[in-house]
Design goal:
α12 crosses α20. The chain has one domain: Up-down Bundle (Growth Hormone, Chain: A). The protein is mainly α. The protein contains 21 helices and no strands.
C-alpha cells in the first residue's frame, strides 16, 4: 500500500514538473514586448481612475464653493456612472470592430477634454453634464485592457496580467489623492482636473507611437507571433453565426454580471463618498487626505496583483482554472464585506485598517473578475463585448448606489452606517453568487446548432 502511494505521489510530482516545464517553454517563445503593451493600457486605466476619483477628493471643497447639497452631490457622482454603464456595450463592440489602438486612443482624448471641462464648470447643471460626457469616454477603458490581455497573453498568464491591470486602477486611485490634494492646495478645487487632463494628453502621444496588435506588430518575429496566437486557447468563431440572445443568457455571463454588480456596490463608496466620509466623520484635513487617506487605495494594489497571481498559481499546481478563480473570487468578496466594520470602529487607526482590508479584498476579487471575460470568450472579436456587458451590469450598482447614498445620508442626518450596511451585504451576496453559480470556465459556444454538450449552461 505504501509503495502504491509513493508511486502515485511520484507520478503526480512528475506530472506537475512536466506541466511547469511546458509552461516555461511556451513563455520563452512569447514576445517580451507583451509586457510593454500591457503597461501602456494599464497606464490608460490608471489615468482614467485619476480622472474619475479626483472629483471625490475635490468634493468637500467643491460643495462649499458651489453650494451643493449631499443629495445633489450624489446625483453628480451618479452622472458619470450613468453614461459609463450605458456605453459599456457600444464601447466593447467598437473595440472589437475597430481595434484597441484607435478606440482606446480616441477614448482617452475624449475623456481628457471632458476632464478639463469639469474644472471649468460653475453650476450643478454644467458639472452634471461634464461628468456625464466623461463617463461616456471612460467606458472604453476596462474593455480595452481586457482585450489587450486576451490579445497579448496566453491563457495561463491572464490571471497575473489581469491582476496588474486591476492594480493599475488602484494605482490611479492612489495617485489621485496626492495629485488632487496638491491641485486643490495650489489652484483650488479646479486644479486636479486640469492636472489629470494634461497627463492624459501626454499618454496619448506614447500610445499612438508604440501600441500595435500582435497580428500587425513589427516589433516581434513571425515565430513569436505564431506562438502567441496559438496560446490564446479559444476557438475561432465566425461573427455571422453569433447568437447574442443565447450568449447573454449563459449561466457564466449572468453570474459575471451579478458578481460585478455586487463588487461595484462596494467599490463605488471608495470612488465617490470616501473622502467626504474622512473629512466629515473622521475629521481629516487636506494634508491628511493626501497622506493617510491614500493608505486603503495603496493596499488594494498588492491585493490585485496577488489575487491574479494566486489563481494562476493554483490552476497550475492544485486545481482546475474554474476552482482557482472561484476560490479567489469568494475570498476577496468576503474580505471586502469588512467595510462595515470600518464604520463601526471607534478608533481611526482600526477604521483605516478595515477600510484597507476591504479595498485589498476588492483588488483580490477584481483581478480574477476581469479575467473571466477572456476565460469564456469564444473568439477574439467577442472579448471586449462580453467585458462591456458585465461591466455595464456592474456599474448599474454605482448609478443606483451613488444617488441612494446621498439620499440615505440626508435621511439619517449624515450617518454613513446605512450605506455601508448595504455595501457589506452586497459583498456577501457576491461571494455566494460566485461560489454557487459560476460554472466551468471554457469558451462559450455561440454557433447555431452546435454540439448538444456545448449548449449546457444556456437559460434560453
Amino acid at each position: 500500500m505504501q509503495s502504491e502511494e509513493q508511486a502515485l505521489l511520484l507520478s503526480t510530482n512528475s506530472s506537475l514538473l512536466a506541466q511547469d516545464h511546458q509552461t516555461q517553454e511556451v513563455a520563452a517563445k512569447l514576445p517580451k514586448i507583451r509586457f510593454l503593451m500591457l503597461l501602456l493600457v494599464v497606464l490608460a486605466v490608471a489615468i482614467a481612475y485619476m480622472d474619475r476619483v479626483n472629483i471625490a477628493i475635490a468634493a468637500p471643497f467643491l460643495k462649499k464653493s458651489l453650494g451643493i447639497s449631499n443629495a445633489e452631490m450624489g446625483l453628480v457622482f451618479g452622472a458619470f456612472f450613468w453614461s459609463y454603464a450605458a456605453m459599456q456595450i457600444p464601447a466593447g463592440r467598437m473595440i472589437d470592430r475597430f481595434g484597441i489602438r484607435i478606440s482606446c486612443g480616441m477614448a482617452v482624448l475624449w475623456w481628457s477634454i471632458w476632464t478639463t471641462m469639469t474644472g471649468l464648470t460653475n453650476s450643478v447643471a454644467s458639472l452634471f453634464v461634464s461628468r456625464l460626457f466623461l463617463g461616456a469616454g471612460e467606458a472604453a477603458s476596462a474593455p480595452s485592457c481586457v482585450k489587450v490581455i486576451y490579445s497579448w497573453f496566453p491563457r495561463g498568464e491572464r490571471g497575473l496580467a489581469t491582476g496588474i491591470f486591476d492594480g493599475g486602477q488602484r494605482v490611479g486611485s492612489a495617485l489621485a489623492w496626492p495629485i488632487a490634494a496638491v491641485g486643490v492646495g495650489l489652484w483650488g478645487w479646479r486644479g486636479p482636473f486640469f492636472l489629470t487632463a494634461v497627463i492624459g494628453v501626454i499618454w496619448l502621444i506614447g500610445w499612438w507611437a508604440l501600441y500595435r496588435e500582435p497580428e500587425s506588430c513589427r516589433f516581434i518575429t513571425d515565430a513569436q507571433r505564431e506562438s502567441l496566437l496559438s496560446a490564446r486557447g479559444s476557438p475561432t468563431v465566425s461573427t455571422r453565426h453569433i447568437e447574442w440572445r443565447r450568449m447573454l443568457m449563459h449561466r457564466n455571463v449572468l453570474t459575471q454580471a451579478l458578481g460585478h454588480f455586487c463588487w461595484d456596490s462596494v467599490q463605488y463608496f471608495f470612488l465617490t463618498w470616501f473622502p467626504i466620509y474622512l473629512v466629515h466623520v473622521r475629521g481629516f484635513t487636506l494634508a491628511e487626505l493626501g497622506t493617510l487617506g491614500v493608505v486603503p487605495p495603496l493596499m488594494s494594489i498588492p491585493g490585485s496583483v496577488f489575487g491574479g497571481w494566486a489563481s494562476d498559481f493554483l490552476a497550475r499546481r492544485h486545481m482546475s482554472l474554474t476552482s482557482a478563480r472561484k476560490l479567489c473570487l469568494v475570498f476577496g468578496m468576503l474580505c471586502a464585506s469588512t467595510i462595515l466594520l470600518a464604520a463601526l470602529a471607534q478608533n481611526v487607526v482600526v477604521s483605516m485598517a478595515f477600510f484597507s482590508l476591504s479595498y485589498a479584498g476588492l483588488g483580490f476579487t477584481g483581478s480574477n473578475m476581469w479575467a473571466l471575460p477572456a476565460d469564456v470568450a469564444p473568439a477574439n472579436h467577442y472579448v471586449a463585448t462580453i467585458s462591456g456587458v458585465v461591466n455595464c451590469a456592474g456599474n448599474m450598482a454605482v448609478v443606483i448606489g451613488s444617488a441612494l447614498a446621498g439620499v440615505l445620508l440626508t435621511a439619517f442626518g449624515g450617518s454613513f452606517i446605512a450605506p455601508l450596511v448595504l455595501a457589506s451585504t452586497f459583498a456577501i451576496v457576491g461571494a455566494i453568487n460566485y461560489g454557487l453559480f459560476l460554472g466551468r470556465l471554457e469558451p462559450l459556444w455561440v454557433v447555431e446548432n452546435g454540439p448538444p454538450s456545448a449548449k449546457e449552461g444556456y437559460f434560453l
